[in-house]
Amino acid sequence: MSAAAVLRRERAALCDTFETVGPDAPTLNEGWLAADLAAHLLVRETRPDAALGILLPGPFAKYTERVMQHYEARGFDAMVTALRGGPPWLHRQGPLARANVVENWIHHEDLRRPRGDGPRDLDEETTAILWDSLRLSSIVAGRRLHGAGLTLAAPADDRMRVVRHAEPMVTVTGPVGEIVLFMSGRKEAADVVLDGPPEGIAIVRAARFGL
Predict the structure, then answer these.
(1) Angle at 82 between CA 80 and CA 87, to 5 degrees
(2) Model-level pTM?
């Protein structure tokens, strides 16, 4: 299955969940309800002029917030309908399709976990795309992690990645999707096990991961 096909399937499932939980449902994103999350996805894909504010503070972030409010003013149902139409062509091709699978999958979990839903079973294609995304997140995490080392292990899929060589070494073990959640900054929601000296685990838990 191609990344574009995986993206179409994950987007459809995400929109189903949006419709199930409604606009006022909580998310894992601090301060955001489901309507805010839907607006974020639309801004990210359709408003490159406002996308910088997703990463940058100050006037960039304020402008992005205004654009999100513009989308939300259209109504939640209209936003979900727009999302069901799929991302623009550029976001459905090649590396961007793979990146968009990860973005949609993580935000789907942002909706699912607050209502008590647990980990999903993933097929081989989704697992491979999510694991590959850890290349970038591991580089970011490795630069932010100081005073400890970190290894990621998904034994069920026979996968392992060293984020940073250092002592004390900590290993995060779990399914690939749960490791991706942990490395995206959703540490408390991720169903993983941390092994290592207590001081190392404390450092890893306190480190700022994700964008």
Answers:
(1) 115
(2) 0.92
